[in-house]
Each structure stands twice: as structure tokens, then as C-alpha cells.
Design goal:
Elements: H1 8-14, H2 21-35, E1 40-44, E2 47-52, H3 56-72, E3 77-82, E4 89-94, H4 99-106
Antiparallel strand pairs: 1-2, 2-4, 3-4
């Protein structure tokens, strides 16, 4: 199934998200602002991977994303990699089965 064809509420449910639609819309807007700063995006077999500049403000923002998202999306795994000497930061968000299509839909810049 194409991720873009998933209804928004269904995508949230498939990720195990506990936020209501309004709360998720607010969080998604904040995430899209952060993800717009990503230098790279890769779709993975089991999720997505974002590359960011290695500055401290971005690192703090990514920690905030992980802290917030792991409380509402119980089926997702978050991996943050920081390269040496203030090198790039990589955030991987992965999940099982159908959560992958939902993840790519919810964290994309595409329409709801």
C-alpha cells in the first residue's frame, strides 16, 4: 500500500500513537519545521533516516523529538547518531510492519 494513500487517522493508529488528531497536528507542525532543516532524508526498509548539521541546538532539538515521540508512539524505535568533532547528526525512526508506511506518511511533507 502506498504511504500517501493511508488516511491520517489510520496512519496514527498503525504507529501506536496515543495523541488525538489536534495534538498530533501541533506536534507534526513542529517536527516539519525541524525536519525542513535536514540535509538528507533516506527511506529505509523499516522507517526513515534524517541527516542534520552537527550543531548543539539541533542536537538538543533532536533529543526533544525523541523524548516527546517515544511517549506517544509506542511501536517506534529512535536512534540518534552523533559523528565525532561536531560532525553530522543522524536520526533514524523505525518501526515494525505496517508502521513503516504510516511513519513515512506522517513524517513526510506530503498532504494528510
Amino acid at each position: 500500500m502506498n504511504a500517501a494513500s493511508l488516511p491520517f487517522a489510520s496512519a496514527l493508529e498503525r504507529m501506536g500513537c496515543t495523541l488525538d488528531t489536534r495534538e498530533h497536528d501541533e506536534r507534526r507542525a513542529a517536527l516539519q519545521t525541524l525536519f525542513a532543516q535536514a540535509q538528507e532524508r533516506q527511506d529505509l526498509v523499516d522507517g526513515v533516516r534524517y541527516g542534520f548539521a552537527g550543531d548543539d541546538a539541533t542536537l538538543a532539538a533532536l533529543f526533544g523529538v525523541i523524548a516527546a515521540e517515544r511517549t506517544c508512539c509506542s511501536s517506534l524505535r529512535f536512534t540518534l547518531q552523533a559523528e565525532p568533532q561536531a560532525g553530522p547528526l543522524w536520526l533514524e525512526i523505525t518501526g515494525p510492519g505496517e508502521a513503516v508506511a504510516a511513519l513515512q506518511h506522517v513524517f513526510s511533507d506530503g498532504p494528510d
